[in-house]
Amino acid sequence: MKSLSMRAFGHGIGFCVIAFWEISSMCTACSGPSLSRLALAVLLSVQVAPAAYAQADQVDAQGQAVAAQKPRVQPAKAAQAAQAAPAQGSAQEGVLPEVTVVGTNLPVDVQSYPGSVSVVQQEDLGRTSNVIEAMAAVPGVTTGGDSGRSTGQQFNIRGFGYQSEDRVIILQDGVRRSTALYSNHVSSFRADHDLLRRVEIVKGASSVQHGGGGIGGVVAMTNKDARDFLPSGQQAGMAAKLRYEHNNHREGYVAGAWVPQDRPVELLAYAKRGKTGDIRFSREYGTNRQGQPIDTADNRENLSVAYVQGAVRLTGDQRLALSHYDYRIKNKTTWQTLYHTNYGEDPIHGKLSQQDTVLKYQFLPAHNPWLQLEASAYHSRAAYDRGYVSASGAGIQYKNADQRSGLRLGNESHFETGAIAHRLASGLSFERREEDAVYRRNGKLSDFGSMPNTYKDLGLYAHLESRLWQGRLTTQIGGRYDRFQRQIHNRQTRYRDTHFSPRLGASLEVASGLYLLANWSEAFRAPTPHETSIEGPVNPHYWYLPNPDLRPETIRETELGASLTRHGLLASGDVLRTKLMYFNGRIKDLITLRETRKGEVSPDDTPYGHYVNIDRVKRHGIEWQGSYERGPFGLGMSYATLRQIDQGTGKNTPQTFANKLALNTHLSPRAGLKLGLEVNHWFKPKPNPASTVSRGKTYWYVRKDFTITNVYAIWQPNPHGSGAFGRDFSVRVGINNLFDASYMNARDVETSSRVGKGRNVYVNLETRF
Predict the structure, then answer these.
(1) Cα–Cα separations (whole angstroms), residue 265 to 20, 255, 313, 374, 585
(2) How far apart are CA 111 and CA 175, in angstroms?
(3) Where on this chain is TonB C-terminal box (motif) (predicted)?
């Protein structure tokens, strides 16, 4: 049997290579030769399959999580188990433990994970029309401070996000992406919320599993598969959705899925269209050229998404899947999509795009505890191309492009040494990234000095989890070695270095359901080619000078906390969950832009600037979240603080952050009906510095508190069957920002136009048939 399994594994890998080679050949014209060079490497491309272990945590008669025998897992079931939560509307919602797989590459109950992690589920994603807005209530995450466009959304995780390139790792289906595409004119995950099963947000230093860049944290988005779109109990079917928002947004999708029980194949095809117009703010924020008050941001965005996925079950424990994701927005907008609200004389016309092709191969033998394998290879392209032509014929055309090809390799093993049970995740990853920009003003090409460029990153990691004392004490020890290279093509400028990132963690169950948690980890970020090599008048503010002597940023962070889970606290069947984490980290050699050669002016009559390492930045804060579920009633709360200080100046960097309290509650008065309320409150910040001076005028940073209230209702007239509008038909209605209140990010000044979106009534119809 063992030889048959290994032969089957070999056949599967061979098929994987052939399929990938053919696809790469077809894509050579659009993807370049780099994809073809990766094809044979799939022979070795094996990635840990974290979802395969998700079913190992079962629930006993008292509702406590207990270890079980590692089951033989079908891939689709493994993916569903990773959600660790039942379908919406279930009477048992919230009872099963929630699982994180991103933090350690091993499925771990969120309550016993020694760190701060939050999971945004499908129902949370359905209350907004994009992923970043759905993260607004997550502790440790800051959103807002933009003009509300899909192409320009500000976000921040533990101090970093927009305008902090590569300090937060963004993943969709395992593929990294740059949210700003270097330009900072846009900020977008380029993700379709209707296509996501869930979003995991790991906060804090996170380099061991994912490599350089995890100083703020990791956002990992998991795509749905064919089973997620099937009607209940069916092997083939269609799914459709229509959504209308009265603040000028509408969208809809159609999907077809086929998962026959008597054939080893799965197929999914998905298409979506959306349209967004002018965005109304919560209040008037200024006047137009005619002196009339304005309360809207000019905007036109036309969205199109296509996704296809095919999978074949080669044997009972092997699966091969190939998917392609295509996301595009055509827009009429402003030059800076986050901060500029109105078109002016010459609107900008642009195209934002993201295409990902991902090939995965799983080998999950049921009776081999040393082998849980997944092979993956991907190719990704992203671009933002925009410009204008004035009536006089003058104009600008500016395109940023980002192309990546990568492989992942790893394994999950289970073994014992005496009375100690172990899980070991190990492997490697490789990514080649090519970045370019083309800027033409009146037909004249500008030289950035740092474009085009190439990033090469190779990482080796191992993470060992050990359970002692009948599972009451769990220790985590891991490390990752990264080798990275940055190269400027035209100048043959090259930067290379290595880094080792360690991690230690522990969780101790001191009483039933009560855990003490501790974690220490290190993360790093390598300098970008722009920071080391940019030169010249790249923007109106500085004449840039290169600095090839920059050092990588590093952070060492300690997290301490506790969690409590109680079943049957006030009544049979109820459950209380709460978790508090305190973090304290020091960032060494943070890279930032500083004026240099003071007293001199450049040929453009602007100051000189270059990127430098500043000595040390300290951050600390708390993140708390809790929930209580009792039958049809649920209550949740969270609270978060963050202070990040440049120890050289004593001032907040890169901005001040407001403390945030979030409250949510829901009630199901009858089967198929759910009513909900959400309240997010930002306390009055304490800005330091309190003001900034521009062109001789003083502007004060925000010094107010803000509260946003949302309400919603979900109705499923036939929760377990079909009706006149198909199977699993649901109606979702709600009002975001019920009281039309303003919200201003603490990074903004009090006179900013970014006062937040106004009241938005939405209706969402979804069905399967």
Answers:
(1) 18, 17, 6, 18, 48
(2) 27
(3) 752-769
Q: Is residue 673 predicted with pLDDT exceeding 60?
A: yes
pLDDT, residue 7, reads 45
Tens of pLDDT, residues 402-424:
999 999 999 999 999 999 999 99
Tell me, letter by letter, the H, E, C secondary structure of 627-691: EEEECCEEEEEEEECCEEEECCCCEECCCCCCCEEEEEEEEEEECCEEEEEEEEEECCCCCCCCE
Instruction: For residues 644-671, give the mean pLDDT.
Output: 95
Query: Tokens 């703010």 correspond to what residue?
Result: 281
Q: Give the DSSP H/E element, type plus range, for residue 517.
A: strand 514-525
Question: Which CATH class for the 44-61+72-92+99-768 domain?
Answer: mainly beta
The answer to whether residues 85 and 93 touch, using CB atoms and an 8 Å cutoff, is: yes
CB 726 within 8 A of CB 744: no
**Domain-by-domain residue ranges, the chain?**
1-43, 44-61+72-92+99-768
Dist CA 30 CA 402 (whole Å): 13
723 neighbors 729 (Cβ within 8 angstroms): yes
Helix (H, G, I), strand (E, B) or coil at 75: helix
CB-based contact 115:204 (threshold 8 Å): yes
Q: Can you tell me which residue has the tokens 């073809």? A: 36
